[in-house]
Design a protein that fits this description.
Length: about 120
């Protein structure tokens, strides 16, 4: 039951993140005070966000190929979950990494879309 609540909250967070990004994209180039609409991240933030997203994507693909993912969190620093022995924890960590990749990629997409609109 706790896992279902966790995944439901993750889906709600993703929906809120999507709606926030769409609202930013729909805004006009200039607001009421003649200031340009800002993206989710700035130029340096875009580079950092892109680098983190690419690293997490690499970690996700590597984990799927090897069937082993490192534990994410404070309590289990060096523990690794394998698909054969800890399937539930393995897929939970894979889901979390994938969620982070999609969220960060969407932030980069929204920012670039705002910067290059006509």
């Amino acid at each position: 039951m706790l896992a279902a609540l966790y995944y439901l909250l993750m889906l709600l967070l993703g929906f809120a993140w999507y709606k926030f990004g769409q609202n930013l994209i729909r805004k006009e180039s200039r607001g009421e005070s003649d200031l340009s609409t800002k993206g989710l991240v700035g130029p340096v933030g875009l580079l950092v966000t892109s680098a983190v997203a690419i690293y997490l994507l690499f970690a996700l693909v590597r984990s799927l190929i090897r069937g082993e993912v490192s534990c994410i969190g404070k309590g289990c620093k060096v523990h690794a979950y394998t698909l054969a022995t800890n399937a539930g924890d393995y897929w939970a960590n894979i889901f979390y990494i994938a969620w982070m990749v999609f969220g960060l990629s969407y932030a980069v997409y929204v920012t670039i879309k705002i910067w290059y609109r006509q």
